[in-house]
Amino acid sequence: MSEENKIELEDEKRGGGPPTTRSESSIESKSDQDDDERETSWQSIYLLTAIGMFCGIQFSIFFPTLWPFLNTVDPTASASFFGFITAAFSVGQGLASPVFGYWMNKAKSEYKHDYTFVKAGNKQILNIYVSWLSPRKRRVRQPLVFGISIMILSNIIFCFVEGFPEKQRRWVMMVARFFIGVGAGTIGVMRAYAATASSLKDRARAITFIQASYVIGMTFGPGIQVAFTPIGYPGLTAGAFHVDMYTSPAWFASIISFLSVLFIFIFLEESYAGIDKHADEEDSYTAMPTFDTISVAVCVLTQFTLMFIITNLETIGSLYAKMMWGWTNAQAVEYTGILQAVNGLVGVLVYALFAVKLGDYISQARERIFTIFGLALGVLYHVVTFPYPWGKDLHFELRNVTVHGKNETEELGCNPDKYRWCHYTKDVNFWIYASMYGVVLAACFPIVNISMNTLFSKILGARRQGTMQGIMLMAGSFARTVGPILVSWIFQEWGPEPIWGIEIFTLSVTAIFWIIFYRRMTPLNSNPKLNPYEYFHYAKGVLYRI
């Protein structure tokens, strides 16, 4: 056996440590160089992109039919209880995200070092032997499979809701949606994997795929549900087994979830090009400084702000359009749908730009500038579309319409008898609103989403990010839970003016934080330069310079 191989064997048996010979130093330098040259695991990222898109679909595919289904199986259920069912998904996702992230961080692979049967002097056989002997990496696989399995079981329970007594069905639906949200908490694991499986040069592009997948899934989910409408109700029934227009989305979700688990076992190959593998070892002497908590807090606040704004506009969108421009229910559904489609298309195009070229451009220390620019776009949208007092008065009239062959009276515009703010609130020009919503706001979300999350992963550094990515997702889920409840109440009592004011304030404060802490919002420096007698603390001790 050569002297170099002897040193290498002893060093790996010892589990790492400070070099004691010149040969060991050269070997360690070569290892560091290999870390820098590790490639992004695109196969796994593409797979998780597809799974993330489907999780987004599961969030929104039920929206068009959830209330009619609840009203069908439990006519006594109130609209307020429906709000709790809708919020249950986000609550489950928010609670589960940090848990799955913590699980991912703790599920470290154990590498067994035993060289008894290795032929001396043959390094290639040694490497193959160690790789074969080591257990398969399960940091991502375990929480993903567990979370998706919960989604499968919860969707099946949702499908059998009519097998329960009528008074219990609303509760069964709420519990099922809660645990579907719990399963969707694995989105945080996927985002953490994208941040740690990608090299720095590919970081923005990898995060774009995972971030965009969930948003695109939410965008196209309601459209997919249309394919199940021809099945009708009650559809195919056999006792408690029902396949109809209401349960078909859940059956579809269960099948795709099962295929997702199968693909995870077959195609997911975990690789971590963005992690310092030496610092990740228990007995490593590599220092990994603590990340800057203020910078992380600003990113988490930004995530909350972003989801708060988007959710609020989704919540009051149709009702706002009806009152502002005097549309009928049919017109509100049609025109609002067109606006949302344009908004989604522009958003997808912006995500595509990030995936192709723009992501590489912002990765060159431009994340802060783009985040502030995106927040400024959000402020611009609200300032331009604010219902200023010099606008026209809101219109109101009663019109006879025919709905399903029946003559009914429909309210068009803003009814001052129901909403006192109709007396003083002014209208907003539709074409100005449409252009700002379909272009400016549509670009705001992906620009902030990708820029901020890319920098967030760099601020955390080359460490396991599961828990922190879970906290980031929890902030968004909390916004999706609180936003609709708060905004619905404010809109009913005081109209759109205070909502626009709150959102301008929230976006402005968030942007100000980015400006104030601009110099702190930088990637973690894993190897800070120390002057003589300076030191810094890290998780495994203290680093001194003498």
UniProtKB/TrEMBL annotation:
**A single GO molecular function term of this UniProt record:** transmembrane transporter activity
Residue ranges, compositional bias (Basic and acidic residues): 1-15
Q: Which residues cross the membrane?
A: 45-67, 79-103, 144-165, 171-194, 206-228, 248-268, 289-313, 333-356, 368-390, 430-450, 471-492, 498-518
Q: Kindly state one GO CC term assigned in the UniProt record.
A: lysosomal membrane
- UniProt keywords, alphabetically: Membrane, Transmembrane, Transmembrane helix
Q: Where in the cell is it found?
A: Membrane
> SUPFAM superfamilies this protein is in?
MFS general substrate transporter (SSF103473)
One Pfam family from the UniProt entry? Answer: MFS_1
Xref: InterPro entries: MFS, MFS_Domain-Containing_Protein, MFS_trans_sf
Q: Where is this region: Disordered?
A: 1-37
Bilayer topology reads: Multi-pass membrane protein
Protein name (record): Major facilitator superfamily (MFS) profile domain-containing protein
